[in-house]
Amino acid sequence: MSIRKDDMETYFTPEQVAQRFGVNRQTIYSMISQQQLDAYTFGRSRRITERQIQECLDRRYQRPIVVLGPNA
């Protein structure tokens, strides 16, 4: 079994994610501890994939659909 580069995920540090979104590093660590953002733990280090970032954004900015009745 061979692993292609296309099959490998990129891992970002909390610092890289913070820079990307214009927040400080502690905000990202806080989101991880509050389970708002998933992260992998390697020893004492945290790493976040693009998929985990997208899932966090999808959950955070999901808008409910409001269905209005006929008399609304």
Strand order of the largest sheet: 1-3-2
Q: β content, as a range?
A: 5-15%
Number of domains: 1
Shape: extended
Residue ranges: pLDDT <50 for 5 or more in a row?
none
Helix proportion of residues, in percent? 25-40%
Largest sheet: number of strands, sense, barrel closure:
3 strands, antiparallel
Rg, nearest Å? 17 Å
Alpha plus pi helix count? 3
Count of β-strands: 3
Alpha-beta classification:
alpha+beta
Q: Give the termini distance in whole angstroms.
A: 60 Å
Mean pLDDT: 86
Series of H and E elements: EHHEEH
Outline the structure in words.
The chain has one domain. Helices cover 39% and strands 14% of the residues. It has helices spanning 14-21, 25-33, 50-60; strands at 11-12, 40-42, 45-49. A three-stranded antiparallel β-sheet has the order 1-3-2. Strand 2 (40-42) and strand 3 form a beta hairpin. It is extended, with a radius of gyration of 17 Å. The termini are far apart. The mean pLDDT is 86.
